[in-house]
Amino acid sequence: MTMIEKMIESTGNIIGFKAVGNIQKEDYAQLTTELEAALTVVDSLRLLLDLAEFEGEEMKAWGADLKFGHEFRKKIEKMAIVGDKKWQKWLAALADPFYAREAQYFPTTERDAAWAWLQS
Average pLDDT of 89-114? Predict the structure, then answer.
């Protein structure tokens, strides 16, 4: 069962993913495939990560997580992190230098604002 799902609101270089439950190493393979496919059409990406139902990441996934950041950080213009936990807000601050050129946190009640920010 895939724990990272592409969101239907995704269009062009703006892509959203919803993470549910505990993310495994294999989930990063799906995420990487989706982004690589998008990058054959566009030069850079803007990502929304919906972490409202995200519970954590298996230890085996940490390496894949870091590799993902290293591989895509220069290709991700903006990253919106959506969730309601304090650590998710902290994650947005960390994402800025390591996963995207610019990152911002949005509470789940402001999901529409996150999409709008990515479009601006």
Answer: 91
